[in-house]
Each structure stands twice: as structure tokens, then as C-alpha cells.
Amino acid sequence: xxKAYQFIGSPxxxxxxxxxxxxxxxxxxxxxxxxxxxxxANAYRIVLDxxxxxxxxxxxxxxxxxxxxxxxxxxKNGLLLCRGNLLGIFLTQVGGIQTRVEIQSLYVVxxxxxxxxxxxxxxxxxxxxxxxxxxxxPSVQSQPVPMAxxxxxxxxxxxxxxxxxxxxxPAKKNLxxxxxxxxxxxxxxxxxxxxxxxxxxxETQNDTLLVYSDKVAGKDVRIGYIFMGDQLVRxxxxxxxxxxxxxxxxxxxxxIKEILTKKYGQPVExxxxxxxxxxxxxxxxxxxxxxxxxxxxxxxxDTPTTSILHVLMGDNFKISLVTEYAxxxxxxxxxxxxxxxxxxxx
Length: 346
Fold this sequence. Notes:
Blueprint: E1 4-8, H1 11-17, E2 21-27, E3 38-39, H2 40-53, E4 56-62, E5 67-72, E6 80-91, E7 97-108, H3 117-135, H4 161-167, H5 191-197, E8 201-206, E9 209-216, E10 219-228, E11 231-239, H6 247-264, E12 269-274, H7 286-291, E13 295-302, E14 306-315, E15 318-327, H8 331-344
Antiparallel strand pairs: 1-2, 1-7, 2-3, 4-5, 5-6, 6-7, 8-9, 9-10, 10-11, 11-15, 12-13, 13-14, 14-15
Helix pairs in contact: 2-3
């Protein structure tokens, strides 16, 4: 006999109300079962925390179908299946990959001939216990789509106050545009005005560029201001973190992306881009894939005045993490200037 344990949640209800009701059903041949109502966001966190503590690693299986499959370190057979909408990924410190989903259904299916049957039953029992305990507690208001839960040893620190001033999310749900476009600058400022506004250490400058060094979100960065006709048209953060484990560059990308999402809302584009799929089925090698130019991560946002591009890319075993801000109104000045320079080359 095969037992299937299923968690069912309502993504539609989630979208409408920001919180959905989930159930745990113990399905078996007699047709009986148990049902527990729990807040959706709590269920999400409880399930991922339980899998982490029970030493599951979750790997991406079929993103087109919104499915992931979980394994234990001991057993190689697929043990757990999540169905839902894939919202993003992050890597744990040990390289195991977890996938953030709107949980629609969670299955643990231990076949009788599987050596992992006891482990499967232990897992669903533990998750059920935690969900039951959660349902007895007062519900806590949470974000409609919960942030991925990093293990405590890799959870990013709270940004310092000056970083929060630059990147922190507004308190209101309806995002309100800051009086500045980038740090303490607005598009169209002159070089002298930017020099007055910027308090970081000035590294270098020329007719069209100011470069400063500072820390943003606890990471070493170079801050570039690009001018055309003595008007600020574009700015960027270039991050200079060093890692021997290249997967940690993906962590950096995702950490900064979360901060940007808090400030500017959900990105209009957010995806990994594969130019060579050699490492696609080996998540532990995705950092290598970035370093050799096979994979890049891209997300971008739009505000009324600014286009924002956040990208992790690499080539020839060098990895770059860059966040670029460009004026929508003044970008044509830079485009025209580049075209004029190109014409002079002929």
C-alpha cells in the first residue's frame, strides 16, 4: 500500500487577501484523514524550517511545471514533491538549493519498498505537528509573498542605518518616490553638485565620471556617477566582495535584490539567463556557471524617473555584481553622445 500525504493551499486566495488558509490531509486507503487550518505564510515558513532541520536538500526539478523535488543526504530516491509557482531561489551555505514557492500542494509519498518510508512518515508527522501548533497561535500579519528563509548561519545582517536610508523599503504598501534618484543625487545634477552631496571617499574622477568607495549592505562597493554635458545621467554600484566559493556571489545577488524589492516593489523582470546549459542540472556548480559566462542573473525595476538594472554575470573566471540606475529622460543624451563618438571613428 502507498500512502500519500498532501498539503493544500490556495494561491488564488493568497493573491486576493495576502493570506490563505491551508490544510493538512493524511490520505490513505480507507479515505479518512485529518485536517488543520493554518495561516498560509506560517505554513510556508514552518514547512521550509522543518525540511531544513530534518536535513533535506531541495533541488530544482522542472521549473516549467513549477515543481521541485527533495532528497535526504541518506536516500537518493525522490521523497517530497512541491507544486506551486516558483518565485526565486537561494543557495544555503553548504550548497544545497531551496526553492521559494507559493505552496499549492506538498506530497510525501513513501512506497512500501522504499528504505526511506520511516523518514517520510517522520517528516510529515513533524510538519503536521508544527502546523497544528501554529494554528493554535494568534495569526501574525505577514507579507503576501514571504521572503525566502535562510538558515540562521547565512541569514544576512540588518543593514546599517545609512544603508537603510539608501535602500530601505517605504512603510506604506503604495511605494512613494524618494526626493532623490540615486543616494542623495537627482538626475541632471552637475559634477560639483554631486561632489557636494556625496560623502563617500572619492577615488578618481575625469570629465564624465566620479568614482567613490564605500560599503553598501555591508559590502565593499565602488559608486560611479556618469555625466554627459555636465549632467548626471547614470549611476551604478559595482560590488567588490571576494569569495572562494563562487555560489556565495549568488547569495550576494539575491540579498541585494531583496533590498531593492523592498524599496521599489517586485521587479518587472527577474530571471536567470543561460547561454550554455552545461551546469543547469547541477545547482552546486551554478557559481562556476556564472564565472565562465554560462549563466547570468538579471532583475530590473522601473520608477517614474529611473530604470534600475541588477545583474550578476561573469566571464573568463571573473564575476561581477552590478546595480545600475539610469535616467529615463536623460538617457537619450548619453545615447546620442555615444553615437557621435562612433561616427568619429570612421
